[in-house]
Amino acid sequence: MKNRGGGEQFSRSVISQKWVLFLCLGSFCAGLLFTNRIWIIPEAKGVARTTAFESERLKLVAEGCDPSFSSVKSVPKKIFKEVSNTQNIDMKTTLDKTISSLEMELAAAKAAHESILSGAPVSENDKGSTKRRKYFMVVGVNTAFSSRKRRDSVRATWMPQGDKRRALEAEKGIVVRFVIGHSATLGGILDRAIEAEDQKHGDIMRLDHVEGYLELSAKTKAYFATAVSLWDAEYYVKVDDDVHVNIATLGETLARHRRKPRVYIGCMKSGPVLSQRGVRYHEPEFWKFGDNGNKYFRHATGQLYAISKDLATYISVNKNVLHKFANEDVSLGAWFIGLDVQHIDDRRLCCGTPPDCEWKAQAGNVCVASFDWSCSGICRSVDRIKEVHRRCGEGEEAVWKAKF
After folding, report:
1. Percent of the chain having pLDDT more than 70?
2. Which residue(s) pair with 307 in the sheet?
3. pTM to 2 decimals?
4. How many CA atoms lie within 13 A of 149 on its CB side?
5. From CA 179, how far away is CA 151, in angstroms rounded?
6. Pick from 134, 224, 132: which is nearest to 170 by CA?
7. Of 12, 155, 198, 378, which has the fewest Cβ atoms less than 10 A away?
8. Burial of 244 (0-12, 13-18, 19+ CB in 10 A)
9. Calpha distance 241→376 (Å, rounded)
């Protein structure tokens, strides 16, 4: 080769470029041959290889689409999904009902235990155990401090006294009590008067509640919670102290619904929501019921209604979170709105005073309760309830002959 200066220069290359290329190719081929021989995996004896067709067939079988079952129609995946969703919903519903039932039973057991510790009645056959006595119904007569004459008029008519009242509990499982809380001044003259009255008659149930007309919804909650803790009954009844009641007819009416769960019995109504201030039964939360002029949902009128044990237990368990509206009958209906409750409308629970209840009795359809709608009870009940009892009462022997 010539340099820039034109002089010749000898080549220093020992191997030509062609031989370098051949050596590289040879080394690459030798490497391939060596690698294939070393890493080849021998086949296991007795294990057959699957062809591509057989692999595809196995895949179809795994997915439930075996071509060999040509006579069986394939089920669309959509149906499988719907069936699965239905099963999940049914399981969830059953689970929710089971949990709700267990919560009710747990609350009832807790209330029973607390009532036994506090000295609640125990069955004569179970004196040595913690088993509570079973009752048919508890009738709570709502009353106030100023209603002494009303209470005496009820005692003189439809509410048994003394030995008869105790026999009614022992033989028929029927408990009747006046229901009242305490005054704003605990232990004051009003409370002492009620305590003296109870010592004389033994027919008053005291509540941990401050009395007041605007607190009737709270009193209703307190009544059911207290009654459930004291007596294990099938039904719990609330009635006002200016209403006439036929106890035997009431018991026979409730007994017809014994096999039904979550029963709410009364004269169902749906009155207007009153938004005007100053009127009777004004609803301060009227806006919750929609536009002006709307009506309440169906609920039992407040003069008399009855609920089954599971609903009374529900109120007892949830008393701290149940909302109170201005009217106690509306509040009770609201507490059951979202529950699977059977509303039973029985017009014999809201008969009028004579001649209405008298005509019905003569026709063989004895009324459970009688009062005047215009007064939300018997007008001038202290003076007139004896007349109502004489003309519309079922007779003193009826309750002893009745079979519930």
Report:
1. 71
2. 236, 264
3. 0.71
4. 8
5. 11
6. 134
7. 12
8. buried
9. 11
